[in-house]
Structure formats: C-alpha cells, structure tokens
Design goal:
Blueprint: E1 5-7, H1 16-19, H2 24-34, E2 42-45, H3 52-62, E3 67-70, H4 76-87, E4 94-98, H5 106-118, E5 122-128, H6 136-139, E6 144-146, H7 152-159, H8 167-177, H9 181-189, H10 191-206, H11 209-226, H12 228-240, H13 247-260, H14 270-278
Parallel strand pairs: 2-5, 2-6, 3-4, 4-5
Antiparallel strand pairs: 1-3
Helix pairs in contact: 4-5, 7-8, 8-9, 10-11, 10-12, 11-12, 11-14, 12-13, 13-14
C-alpha cells in the first residue's frame, strides 16, 4: 500500500484549549457528535488556517481515539489505502482524517463513497476548505461543521502569545492572517520576509497598466514562484483594507478570489495571475 497514512500524534490534551481560539460552539457540537459510541462521519468546513485538522487530531488524542491522518490529495491510491483499512476486522473504531478532501477529483470521490458507506468501524473526518467541491452524495452522508474566521480582536489576543514580538509585528500578523490562527502562526515564522513583500506590493499597486506588469516581473515574480497562495492572499487583504477601494479594485478582488479558489492540481500560472491585472 502507498505510504500516505500515518498515526496521528499531534498535541497533547493539555494544549487542546490553549491552542484554539474562536469557533467554540462549532467545536463543542463536533466534539459531542464525534464522541458518540457508534462510528460517525463528519465534514469540517471553512477557510484554510482555522485549525480544522489540528482540532480533529488533538481531540482524538485527548479522548484516546485511534486516529489515522491521510495528508495527500484523495487519489485512487489514497482510496485503496482507506479501503484496505476498511477491510480489516477490528474491535472498536478508528478515526480517519482525510485532509484537503475537497481537492479530490470526482472519480476518486465516487470510489471513496463506497468505502464511506461500507466501513462499519471507521469514522471519517473530511477536512474541506471548500465543502461544495465534495459530491452531494458525500455531503448527504456526513454533517458539516463549519469553522469561521475569528474576529480581529480575538486574533490579536492569540497573536499576543508570540510575546517576543513588538506590537507592530503583532498588528502585522493580525492584519494579514485575516482571522485565521493557523495563518497567523505561519506568518510569524516568516515575518521579516513578508514585511518586504508588503512594501513591494504597495509599490506594485501604485503602478498602473504596463508599468504594474513590468514591476511584477522585476520584483514580485520570485514571491509568486515561492508561494503563490500567500502572495494572492496578501493582495486581496491589501485591497480589501484600502481606505478608498474603487470599483476597479472590487473587480480585482473578485478575480483574485477566483484565482485563489482554483484547485491546487490546476495550472496556477504566472500568466493567469498577470492576466488578472491586464484586464482590470
């Protein structure tokens, strides 16, 4: 079998509450549902960086539920691994966390549906940043627990845990994480470089038309090549927070959001990104 499944060994239970911020009601309902005596399936939906997968791992560990994490695109090979688990005869139940389940191609989702219906001792937790990308037949067999971005005030309290940082650094993290604690943690790890990204992006938006495109190729192309998701994310947040957002900026935001929603398996090319600004 392909080596894509591993036993989850995330945080210990004493860190469960201290790590998470926000979504208390959703987490409480999901906990009550998952910790039922019989195997149950669920979908954890919401933007990337809200702690959906991390919560599922930590909660299973806290409740001593055997847990297997599959962190790969839900391909046919991944389905074979899950089907193999389902074929085993075992007492008790195992929680199987499928990360990025919404990125699976339709054929893989159809193959998974049979396993979802016929695995009597497995509880499937499908982590989906875009639950609508899952087949309706899958969504009908697993209730959705939706995680929302937290308020900026609450996120600032979370960011204060990075106590080695200045208030200006904490403000930067709070702004560009946009209510997503997981993103805040990743920004904190790359703070110095992302501050340079911000400066260059401000210059980028000051330019117009051909000059803007030339600036992109001169300064921003390495950022896109390094992490296109983060660059697009910062573009969207800067435009949304602009004090004078014009109708043209609203068009840019919609196009950037559409670009960000493209499956990671698709071709997120430089030309696609540049085209967003060429036609704005």
């Amino acid at each position: 079998m392909p080596n894509i499944a591993k036993e989850s060994t995330h945080m210990n239970s004493s860190l469960l509450e201290s790590f998470f911020v926000g979504n208390e009601s959703t987490r409480t309902k999901a906990e009550e549902y998952l910790f039922d005596s019989s195997p149950r399936n669920m979908i954890l939906g919401g933007l990337k960086g809200l702690g959906k997968r991390t919560w599922a791992e930590a909660y299973c560990k806290e409740k001593n539920l055997p847990c297997i994490l599959i962190q790969t695109t839900l391909s046919i090979d991944a389905i074979r691994t899950v089907s193999y688990l389902a074929s085993l005869r075992q007492k008790g139940r195992i929680v199987v966390i499928l990360d990025d389940a919404d990125t699976a191609e339709e054929a893989a989702q159809h193959a998974f549906l049979k396993t979802l219906e016929e695995a009597p001792y497995l509880s499937f937790v499908l982590v989906a940043h875009n639950p609508d990308a899952l087949l309706p037949t899958i969504r009908s067999r697993a209730p959705l627990f939706y995680f929302s971005p937290v308020s900026e005030d609450l996120l600032r309290l979370f960011v204060q845990r990075f106590d080695i940082m200045s208030s200006a650094d904490q403000d930067f993290i709070a702004i560009y994480s946009a209510g997503r604690p997981g993103v805040a943690t990743r920004i904190a790890e790359s703070l110095e470089s992302l501050r340079k990204w911000e400066v260059d992006l401000r210059h980028f938006f000051e330019h117009k038309d051909a000059a803007r495109i030339q600036f992109f190729y001169s300064y921003l192309l390495p950022y896109f090549q390094e992490d296109p998701e983060r660059l697009v994310d910062m573009c969207i947040i800067m435009l949304q927070r602009s004090a004078a957002t014009h109708s043209a900026d609203q068009v840019l935001i919609r196009r950037l959001l559409a670009f960000a929603a493209l499956p990671r398996s698709s071709d997120r090319s430089v030309l696609q990104f540049v085209d967003i600004f060429c036609v704005a």
